[in-house]
Amino acid sequence: MRLTEEENRVVRNLIFLEFTRKTLEHDKKHIESSGVKIKDPYIEAMDKAIVKVGTEIRDLKRALHKGQIKIHEEGPRETEGSAKIYVYKLTKKGYEQRMDLASHVIKNAVVGLMRRFL
User: Fold this and answer.
1) Sheet strand arrangement including 69-78
2) What is the pLDDT of residues 17-42, one digit of tens each?
3) DSSP state at residue 118
4) What are phi and psi of 37, to 5 degrees?
5) What are the tens digits of pLDDT across the range 49-96?
6) What is the per-residue burial (b if ≥16 Cβ within 10 Å, else e) of 90-114?
7) Which helix (H) or strand (E) holds 117?
8) Long-range pairs, 66-75, Cβ under 8 A, ≥24
9) Running DSSP on this structure, what letter comes out for residue 38?
10) How many domains does the chain have?
11) Of 11, 72, 76, 101, whose CB neighbour count within 10 A is largest?
12) Nearest 10 degrees: CA dihedral of 42, 48, 49, 51?
């Protein structure tokens, strides 16, 4: 049993949002420890974006739970050159499916999501 197009979209969006949240939290720490004179506006914007991302993640996780879909990250794998492939195992009602996402695809999605939330 394969995931539907909509279910695949939800899974991809959840993965991209998780990476976006990690990136925002990482960048926020760098801003906090940087030499920027006035940090508060940047930190507040980052906090608001992190909350919005968290809300969307919650909604997508609920949709996956309702559809009995689970995501298991198998971790990144090196490919030729410096590219990485992130491998995910998806299970739905006992059936398994694999999803591979290239690091540059994830990066482009995260950049777009960061522009949307900031």
Assistant:
1) 69-78, 84-92, 95-102
2) 999 999 999 999 999 999 999 999 99
3) -
4) -65, -50
5) 999 999 999 999 999 999 999 999 998 888 777 789 999 999 998 899
6) bebeeeebebebeeeebeebbeebb
7) helix 103-117
8) 67/7, 67/10, 67/92, 68/92, 68/93, 69/3, 69/7, 69/10, 69/11, 71/11, 71/14, 71/15
9) -
10) 1
11) 11
12) 140
- Sorted by sequence, the CB contacts under 8 Å of residue 55 that are 6+ apart come out as none
Question: How far is it, in rounded angstroms, from Cα 110 to Cα 107?
Answer: 5
Q: How far is C-alpha 89 from the chain's CA centre?
A: 15
Residues counted in the chain: 118
Strand pairing class (69-78; 84-92) = antiparallel
Q: Which helix (H) or strand (E) holds 42?
A: helix 40-66
Task: Answer yes or no: are the C-beta atoms of 28 and 46 closer than 8 Å.
Answer: yes
- At 90, the amino acid letter reads L
Beta-bridged to residue 80, according to DSSP, are none
CB 29 within 8 A of CB 36: no
Task: Give the residue among 59, 57, 53, 60 at the shortest CA–CA distance from 25.
Answer: 53
